[in-house]
Amino acid sequence: MASKAVYSHRDPMLKKRDDFEDMLEERRNSSDLRYALKCYTPVLYKGLTPCKVSELKQMVLQSDQLGYVITQVSKEKGVTSDEVTGEAAAILEEMAQRLQLSTVRFFAFTLSKVFKTLFRSICINEEGLQRLQQAIHNHPVVLLPSHRSYMDFLLMSYILYTYDLALPVIAAGMDFMGMKVVGEMLRMSGAFFIRRSFGGDKLYWAVFSEYVKIMLKNGYAPVEFFLEGTRSRTAKSLTPKLGLLNIVMDPFLKGEVFDISLVPVSISYERTLEEALYARELLGVPKPKESTSGLFKARKILSEDYGSIHVYFGQPVSVRSLAESRVNRSQFNLIPRHIPTRPSEEILSFVNDSAYRLVRAQEENMVLKPWVLLAFVLLQKQAAEEKQGTALDELTEQAVWLRDLSRQYGAFLHWPDHIPPSEVVSSSLSLHRGLVRISEGRVQLALEQVGGQQVPGETRGAITPEEELLNKAVVILSCASYRNQALNVFIRPALLASAIHTAASNRKQEIYNSFSFLRNMFSNEFILCPGATVQDFEEACYLLVKTGTLQINQQEVLITERGHRTLAFLTSVLDPFLQGYQVVCRFLCEQDGLTEKQFIPAVRKFIIKHLLTGRLRYTEVLSSDLQKNALAALIRLGAVQKIKGGEEQGTLKLNKVMLNSLEDTLGGKLPTQKSVVAHL
Amino acid sequence: TFKSNPKKQEIMKWNGWGYSDSKFLYNKKGQAEFTGKRYRLSGMIIPGLREWMESTFSANLQHKTPAAPILNSSAVQPPTLNEAFLKELKSTGIPFSHDAEDRVFRSHGHCLHEIFALREGKIGRVPDLVVWPNCHNDVVKIVELACKHNVCLIPYGGGTSVSSALECPPEETRSIVSLDTSQMNRILWIDEKNLTAHVEAGIVGQDLERLLNESGYCTGHEPDSMEFSSLGGWVATRASGMKKNIYGNIEDLVVHIKMVTPRGVIEKSCQGPRMSTGPDVHHFIMGSEGTLGVVTEVTMKIRPMPEYQKYGSVVFPNFEMGVACLREVARQRCAPASIRLMDNEQFKFGHALKPQVSSIFTSFLDGLKKFYITKFKGFDPNRLCVATLLFEGDREKVLQHEKQVYDIAAKFGGLAAGEDNGQRGYMLTFVIAYLRDLGMDYYVIGESFETSMPWDRVLDICRNVKARIVRECKDKGVQFPPLSTCRVTQTYDAGACVYFYFAFNYRGLSDPVHVYEQVEHAAREEILANGGSLSHHHGVGKLRKEWMRESISSVGMGMLKSVKDYVDPNNIFGNRNLL
Question: Same domain, yes or no, for A78 and A118?
């Protein structure tokens, strides 16, 4: 294997992680007011020249970068450059943060109260904070938290304030601006607002990128943004967005700073505040517009026990080391650096790979609770239509088995080993009692419940089968969002297991081809770094051989006696997605003429029909996330073409031959094509 | 063997910089002093140096690393002589020698690894023979004989190379002859109508200036090495002088060049000040680093000696302001003869080199000045930096010029800091090279290297390269923080030249020179990645060869190669520099 020399496996079991401390403990024992008014003197960047918010804006408006674009725009539009400058100033006004310590102190006080009622504990790895402090002192820092909740960025600032670390400026979506008071409050706690889309607006882009770069380069404050772009409704990491990462890496690539530290932060919630909200959204109940009153309502609904939060500040990643022997920085030598240029292929692929690496770093340090493993078991049982539920001790046995497996795969599992497993299981179930029903010692998902978390305004007595299905789906998707937290642990082995399952023989090459096909198919669904097929294959092989599931020799892959259980489990992990993608292919095959807009409602209808007639087992296929990912994959693979411009703008052109064959290949009815990577 | 005219090695160190009688040492009281009589600093006590060395490098006077005192001739390989060549050479009457000391003296430049090895008494491949041609025709004869007998020639001028250019390629199997131009040191004529002088290329900078001064002229070409470097060496490396703002760099000064190559003599037919006759063949010669032939005679521009000279200095609150000021001076094209900007570390270093002051009054004044700058003006002593200035010309214009420059400086927060500081700054450029030898006596090794870059990258390169040096030292196991400092030494319309100084205490390292080389290599990578050039004036030699292709493109390399192939197909000039 050609790549073996350069790729060495680290045993994931040996991964070293820091210990956690509960930061709420002190809050429960001392005055919140005194805490909010405490002396705050963070360590700052050593190269910092302190400047005020207004000076910062001036620096942006006077920058060569922006000046160049202003001249360009004024020529193109035939307006004076003063007008364009005015426009730029307005954009900046709308965008800029106004970080104020007093506001942060206000939040520190209120959030202390809120957090103490909502959460049992907020656990932080303090060593990570020490590393962060060092990083902030040495280089400009970019904070990259995972994004699962609205809570995330307030929580981040809250932690940094508590530990006397420099407060970040945070890139936030414009939708927050809708909440008048809160929007301004957030602005004063360091948020700056970016329009969701500004595709062709180069003035906007220039103001925005220059604003971020100037704050970063000068070490004004750590810059924080969400690599995933938006909150993940499924708890799976989202394919990283590259725009902002590109911007923050640029000052290093162009030599304007010696280095930049990227700090991945993994925030895991034992219970997500938005749990049912997300599920509804995925099922097509439109997302409520972020409004102040909405947020309060959400708070009211959710004033119950949300367990604990774990925040892990990862190892700072040096952009310089990432770029070493990857990027030829001298490519920027021949054009003045203030002239905006389209990043080269080399840079784009570098930023992309870095983004995946960072998202994986986030995933790796996400704390998994025992409930996550229970969610696997309960969902699999539900799909297997075991109507009477699972006996508690069977559930416990399976959870313990899964605990050991996931640990071998390197999961960051917080399973209290000093407590008997049965107690661990029952306390997990009780925290999530809204999703499970226990009767006569048997556990199952609470699918038949009426009332409770009902869609508002739905009061009619008679429920249609479709409505019943959707109610069920809310619970299933909520549950799936917990299972999804651990998907990254299993995804590579699961792809291999499914590949073994579908491949016609046990020849290694054939299994690899099949693996490669599946991996490619699902690369919009899971975090799978582009171009790393061989590494992923080897990682999967390594894990399955190490755990005694497989034996692999030069030519063949053999399943061991005790490997069947693991393989069966792993196959079932991927099965909902396999089936989901097949249904999407089937659906598209049966269409003539469809626009992108019509896709989600139409495919949802199609899936509901299939679920009701029992032709489809997995209710979770109703997730619009899966449907969108499937469509994106099909577009990427060329089975569907999106028509741009003209009268047919947005129409999907379908290659039915290809869709058919993809459906069959996914179903294991067709062998996978010979892979491009033949040197295995 | 002929014994030649007085040889330079009799008054110069064989394993260190400069004159044998001049060096830094710690006297019995543990105070630093500079010996000899040649320099302004000579015979003086430098009270601050010890503390600076101890605090900057964590060096310790107890930990000494003395050099081998004398050359052990038995460590030198016996010469590989080409008897046929030698026989014919004898018949020409040109002096030559295969004495070990003569050969070793011409086997190196002043790179750290070269001097370090000599101090340890380690001698590698050295020339087998040294010849001292007396004139152009002697050189023609030597080159002819070398071609006839397939002998490798390495031209040797002042021996101040810092690019490994003088190192004998270890893979060379032929007899290597060092062609020492030092005897070709006459001014052949001075043409006052055209203000040119025709000079033999072996002349050393300080002699050229002295002789021209006698007639009321100067070239104004003053590289920091001018005490020892030769005209031919300047041409061969594309040298740059401190006062280039008035007089120009070597390429601006040269009117006519005569060079002896294996193909014959190359020269132009007239002395027109500018020609459109295809690519300028002078530019094949300038920077050829001894790979094509020997420069024997050069016609150079001369100027009447300046009526008035005035030093000056300006203190800036920080390096950024200083660079902005230099940029503005360049924009207004009003740079004085020389303008240099030292960073904070170098400012402190310069401070440490202040000689003991004789009067209480001067030290009181110094104290007052310091108080004014740091307390009254609020300059942070750990951030401020200083620019040194040299004005030249007629008195009135100098004073006018001075005012213009100080006015610009004031706009960037600069405060005039006196003539003395300026003058000392320039004096230091001549003694700084001696300081490395002192460091090497106490476990400290270091060197300088230079680059040039567009204006907008000056600050970025300075910051990044200094930081890279610190980081690489740490990564490579250097136990103490290094000195990593820089200064802007030249300004141009479109950019500047920057010098980096880098030194560290190597106690605890098993192979300090290798570590040094790795760090310098990384620093050069950093320079290139940030848009700096491979060299502003030191040249490429063998030290920086590996980056030539990326610097000038493959086609560019091919052009240079094809010239080499035509001019010297048998690689007689086989020092293997550049390509």
Answer: yes
